[in-house]
């Protein structure tokens, strides 16, 4: 786990690692659908506990994921405060002419739980599935769109490249941030303008480095005669096994039961 980067595939032999990528993609879509359709806070907390159990059972670094989640604390706090002050209801706190309501705080906690679930779910998917298998799974699921003459292979190639370079992008951002700190950048300043200026010093060189890497990758693909035509011959074809079917059935049953109970309550 030393030197592991957020979003990077982590080799393992857990159940989630061995599942077909299509199974994990469909499970994530089921979770997203469940998060969107329900607003029951208890059910959302159950999903968070389910995600935590999946992270621990897969042998992923929960310290790394938790520390990355803590970096989103300002976004989560802003969501809570925004909903608290703009939702009408029973007042629990007055700040000038603005009132924070009980209903707003509950709605803010619900939205925070949704964001946490989406973050954890995406990290589990990326860190238990290699980029090649993930792109292959997406391509298989989108095969029916070929009848509409949609270039599925091109889109999945773009996605696989994006998944591959996401960890590298995070690592470069950390390197640039440390370099700017050594030059006196104040990322923890109490002045918002100073902090925005400091983070701008990260975004500009990171964007430039991404363009350079994209140009180099394009030249490398051209030199290897890459074409947009899909490769019909694969060394390892995706094949759903019994455990994949059972996992999807269990996920559908658990989420369906939770949604039903949430609606009835």
Automatic annotation (TrEMBL):
Subcellular location: Membrane
Pfam families hit by this protein: CbiQ (PF02361)
GO cellular component, one term: plasma membrane
Principal cellular location given in the protein's record: membrane
Record-annotated membrane-spanning stretches: 43-62, 74-93, 105-126, 245-264
Membrane topology: Multi-pass membrane protein
Protein keywords: Membrane, Transmembrane, Transmembrane helix
InterPro entries: ABC/ECF_trnsptr_transmembrane
PANTHER family referenced in this protein's UniProt entry, alphabetically: PROTEIN ABCI12, CHLOROPLASTIC
Name of the featured protein: Energy-coupling factor transporter transmembrane protein EcfT
Organism in which the protein naturally occurs: Dehalobacter restrictus
């Amino acid at each position: 786990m030393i030197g592991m980067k957020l979003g990077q595939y982590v080799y393992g032999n857990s159940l989630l690692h061995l599942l077909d990528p299509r199974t994990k993609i469909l499970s994530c879509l089921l979770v997203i659908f469940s998060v969107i359709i329900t607003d029951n806070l208890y059910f959302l907390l159950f999903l968070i506990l389910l995600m935590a159990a999946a992270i621990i059972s897969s042998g992923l670094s929960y310290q790394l994921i938790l520390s990355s989640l803590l970096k989103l604390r300002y976004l989560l706090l802003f969501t809570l405060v925004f909903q608290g002050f703009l939702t009408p209801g029973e007042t629990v706190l007055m700040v000038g002419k603005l009132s924070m309501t009980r209903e707003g705080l509950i709605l803010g906690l619900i939205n925070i739980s949704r964001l946490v679930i989406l973050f954890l779910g995406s990290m589990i998917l990326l860190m238990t599935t290699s980029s090649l298998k993930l792109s292959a799974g997406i391509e298989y699921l989108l095969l029916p769109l070929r009848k509409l003459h949609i270039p599925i292979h091109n889109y999945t190639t773009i996605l696989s490249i994006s998944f591959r370079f996401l960890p590298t992008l995070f690592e470069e951002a950390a390197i640039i941030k440390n370099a700017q700190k050594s030059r006196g950048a104040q990322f923890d300043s109490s002045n918002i303008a100073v902090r925005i200026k400091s983070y701008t010093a990260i975004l500009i060189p990171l964007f430039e480095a991404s363009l350079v890497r994209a140009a180099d990758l394009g030249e490398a693909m051209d030199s290897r005669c890459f074409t947009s035509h899909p490769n019909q011959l694969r060394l390892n074809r995706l094949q759903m096994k019994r455990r994949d079917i059972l996992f999807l059935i269990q996920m559908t049953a658990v989420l369906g039961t939770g949604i039903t109970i949430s609606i009835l309550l």
